[in-house]
Structure formats: structure tokens, C-alpha cells
Specification:
117 residues; mainly beta; 4-stranded antiparallel sheet; 52% strand
């Protein structure tokens, strides 16, 4: 199983980034996909998740600035982030879980998002 996240980089505060995560080795449409992030010195936190059918959840800290989406035909989940803030700076990980309530069982390698002020 591989979850390959990419799209991170350096962006100015107020800017946008789109992260992508390509999955292989799993039946992608069977999994709830999520994006997590971990900032230096902080615990990893859930940013957003999306069910196979498109139901979504967003953390309060990113609601209205972030959109999670998926393309089951491409085995890919996306995270569109707008109006980026300094506090969004973190390593972002994609993860796959078997159901909405379970913990993730597969993790990607992470992609770094750096926000400059």
C-alpha cells in the first residue's frame, strides 16, 4: 500500500496550495480518506476527511478555507487550501481509514507546507 502526498511548498500568507495524495495497493473507493497535519512541537491533528460518497468533515481551524475532494477513478484525494495562515504551516499527511469512525490504517509520507508572513 502506498499513499504518496505531494503539492506542499512555500507560500505567502493569504496564498493558496493544493495538495494531492495518490493511493495504490488499495481499493481506493472503499476507504475514507483524510488529511492530517503536524506542526513542530505539536500533536498531529485531523484537518479534513471525506467518505467514498463525498461526505466531508473539517476541523474548525480550517473550515471555510479548505476543501477536501476525491477522484475515485484516479485514486487520488485533494486538499485545496486558501487564505493560508502562519498557523497552517506543518507537515501534511494523507491517511486512509476503513470507516468514518475508525482510526487510519494507512499513512502517506507527508508533504511540508511552509507559510511565510
Amino acid at each position: 500500500v502506498q499513499l504518496q502526498a505531494f503539492g506542499g511548498g512555500l507560500v505567502q500568507a493569504g496564498g493558496s496550495l493544493r495538495l494531492s495524495c495518490a493511493a495504490s495497493g488499495i481499493t481506493f473507493s472503499n476507504y475514507v480518506m483524510g488529511w492530517y497535519r503536524q506542526a513542530p512541537g505539536k500533536e498531529r491533528e485531523l484537518v479534513a476527511r471525506i467518505s467514498s460518497g463525498g461526505s466531508t468533515y473539517y476541523a474548525d481551524s480550517v473550515k471555510d478555507r479548505v476543501t477536501i475532494s476525491r477522484d475515485n477513478a484516479k485514486n487520488t484525494v485533494y486538499l485545496q487550501m486558501n487564505s493560508l495562515k502562519a498557523e497552517d504551516m506543518a507537515v501534511y499527511y494523507c491517511a486512509a481509514r476503513i470507516s468514518w469512525l475508525n482510526e487510519p490504517i494507512y499513512w502517506g509520507q507527508g508533504t511540508l507546507v511552509t507559510v511565510s508572513s
